[in-house]
Design a protein that fits this description.
Layout: H1 3-12, H2 18-39, H3 50-63, H4 68-87, H5 114-124, H6 133-146, H7 150-155, E1 161-162, E2 167-170, E3 179-182, H8 185-198, E4 217-219, E5 228-231, H9 234-258, H10 262-274, H11 280-293, H12 298-305, H13 310-314, H14 321-330
Antiparallel strand pairs: 1-2, 2-3, 4-5
Helix pairs in contact: 1-2, 2-4, 5-9, 6-8, 6-11, 9-10
Length: 333
């Protein structure tokens, strides 16, 4: 990595999450690697020109097939670095001064059918021998019913749970913003059952140091006996979701094979197919779509998801790829 990247990120790091900094570092390094291959020389900031940025944008869009939102994020990382580099004498001029962002993809993010989510929630709770069953049920419920991001689930503390008020507090959402999210009754019931197991004496009182402990714990595989004490990691949640999604997909396909009702078979197969590339974030997208479909206002959805800009939430008002495909299929003769 070029030494100027490290200096820039160090000055930029105040108030930024480790995930944001990691993404910026990755964006800068990806550009530098591409530039070195194109120019056949080590990355040299003072030699970068606006035509390089144009070529980079075309390369990412045409050859890499990156989405406009991904390219715009990468350009944002580069734009911040270039402005810093000009200020500190590493670049003579800002090569991104006149570069425009790409128009965003007008399609809404892909969401999951209600059948797929329902079966996913049933699947995660069926294994009575799993010592983490109730934990897994509760965290998947928070993803599905409260629209939390994976990192927000990991950061959740015992003091953030208000069972009496039927809400949770996300203290550090994206951009460091806090928000309070009302809990669906199904989610509340699942979370309350888990907390009985997680905190046998009850949730610690206000002021007790224990109230700052993580809600969801995982095994510390580096310690003898693998004690269950460390906060769960995003990687563990990703692996959990992938495993449960695959099991749910197999069950849906098996059910489709057994049924003789054509419409039911089609619904089961579509639900199974939707889980092929699904992620925990798909549950967040799905919540937004369900809320809007059931009469919620776009501002209400914005508050639940914690979006800074209403334009971000407005994406869910657009049809997604699956809905457009269904519309085309319905138009057949």
């Amino acid at each position: 990595m070029h030494e100027s990247f490290g200096r820039y990120i160090e000055t930029f790091s105040v108030g930024k999450s480790i995930h944001t900094l990691r993404a910026i570092r990755s964006d800068l390094q990806r550009f530098a690697t591409w530039w070195e291959e194109r120019m056949q020389q080590p990355f040299t900031p003072e030699l970068v020109r606006d035509r390089d940025m144009t070529a980079w944008q075309i390369y990412r869009q045409v050859e890499s097939g990156a989405k406009p939102t991904t390219i715009n994020r990468e350009l944002s990382s580069l734009r911040g670095y270039c402005a810093w580099a000009v200020k500190h004498g590493c670049m003579p001029t800002n090569p991104l001064a006149d570069m425009r962002v790409l128009p965003p993809d007008p399609l809404a993010p892909r969401s999951l059918p209600i059948l797929a989510i329902d079966m996913l929630l049933r699947e995660v709770g069926k294994d009575a021998t799993n010592i983490f069953r109730q934990r897994d049920e509760a965290l998947i419920a928070l993803l599905a019913y409260a629209g939390l991001r994976v990192q927000e689930v990991c950061d959740l503390q015992l003091r953030d749970i208000d069972l009496a008020g039927e809400t949770i507090t996300v203290r550090r959402g994206k951009g460091g913003k806090a928000r309070r999210v009302p809990l669906h009754q199904s989610c509340l019931k699942t979370l309350a059952a888990y907390l009985v197991l997680r905190c046998p004496p009850g949730i610690p009182p206000i002021g007790d140091p224990a109230e700052r402990r993580a809600v969801f714990l995982g095994m510390d595989i580096t310690q003898p006996g693998q004690p269950i004490e460390n906060p769960i990691s995003p990687q563990v949640i990703q692996r959990l979701f992938r495993r449960v999604a695959q099991q749910t997909q197999q069950r849906l396909l098996a059910d489709a094979h057994r049924t003789s009702i054509a419409t039911r078979k089609q619904s089961l197969i579509q639900a199974a197919q939707s889980l092929t590339e699904a992620s925990p974030h798909s549950l967040r997208h799905s919540l937004a779509r369900r809320m809007l479909h059931n009469g919620a206002t776009i501002v209400e959805v914005q508050k639940v998801l914690g979006h800074s800009r209403l334009e971000t939430t407005a994406r869910y008002l657009m049809p997604n790829e699956d809905e457009i495909r269904d519309a085309i299929n319905r138009s057949g003769l």
